[in-house]
């Protein structure tokens, strides 16, 4: 064997070993993050395109049967205590799987979007926080250069759940979201599973998706919904195309907005492929007036998770309380923070996150930054709504 043959064999083996190391549980669906070839500044390295494919947890590989089961469950009000609200009530396809309301009306409500209102009499409060988009939650927690673990992905405004499987059951157990007064939190999941077991079509679909002896159970319920939610991705925005190497994907004005986004310090928190560090920050965002009590967050310090900036065109209003209707208002809020203004009277100056107070947002730059943010929109995601659900109840609920 000559030197050329030995060298060739060595490189083939090296390529095979490296490829095997990168595969993990995601199999062929795990790919490394694309690195940009077009650096408008050195700081651009803190951002990245989204992966082209989704990584699934080892314990919940995706199948066609599981995804379709999850879709039906997502739109079926059988999952709520009063059989009147579904996951899709507050996460609507036409609104990027979020909702165009400050905070949502869950149980004991009727109507959709801006027309939704409580039925009377009513003793159910508004949902505590703004409905976050489910789109791209398959990438929650993804960071540049780090190994991604789907089962530990951070969820909710306060990070109280990890992974879509754990997240999927939380709204069902929450009073104002889907549970209602009819069942206590500890018993409602058992009730929902018992209901599903009485529906022949669901029994057939669970058996096809899961090969367990008794496939209709809480764990598989969560897995099916999570598998469906991982199909809801929008990862080919013009920004993604630009970061993957297409220098013409952004206009000159949008590139200027990108530079301003980096220069002002926005990317200190809004970084990585999802443009979020997935950390808690205290910003002094005003409370929603839909609830009597002030929302001080999970630690009582008014800190909430950095939201993604993707598909913002479809997800207004913004922030955990839904208090800002436009991106211009959000950026003006950050300009006020940098000027020492605290809008929420319950937040003390020493609580404010210095990453926000040290930003340099100027009014004259806001329009350009918004121009850049609009390059993060991708409207090609799946918006399919089933014509019917196995329970026979109204699709999406009342």
Task: Kindly summarize this structure in a few lines.
This protein has 398 residues and is mainly alpha-helical. It folds into two domains: 166 residues, Cytochrome Bc1 Complex, Chain D, domain 2 (Orthogonal Bundle); 139 residues, Cytochrome Bc1 Complex, Chain D, domain 2.
What does this protein structure show overall?
The structure is a single chain. The chain folds into two domains: 64-229, Cytochrome c-like domain (Cytochrome Bc1 Complex, Chain D, domain 2, Orthogonal Bundle); 238-376, Cytochrome c-like domain (Cytochrome Bc1 Complex, Chain D, domain 2, Orthogonal Bundle). It has helices spanning 3-23, 64-74, 87-90, 163-173, 175-179, 185-197, 200-209, 218-229, 238-243, 252-263, 327-338, 354-357, 366-373; strands spanning 109-110, 117-118, 154-155, 161-162, 280-282, 303-305. The chain has 398 residues and is mainly α. The termini are far apart. Strand 1 and strand 2 form a beta hairpin. The chain has a two-stranded antiparallel ribbon. Residues 1-24 and 27-41 have low confidence and may be disordered. The longest helix is centred in the first third of the chain and has 21 residues, at 3-23.
Question: Which key terms come to mind for this protein?
Answer:
mainly alpha; Cytochrome Bc1 Complex, Chain D, domain 2; 2 domains
List the helices and strands and how they pair.
Blueprint: H1 3-23, H2 64-74, H3 87-90, E1 109-110, E2 117-118, E3 154-155, E4 161-162, H4 163-173, H5 175-179, H6 185-197, H7 200-209, H8 218-229, H9 238-243, H10 252-263, E5 280-282, E6 303-305, H11 327-338, H12 354-357, H13 366-373
Antiparallel strand pairs: 1-2, 3-4, 5-6
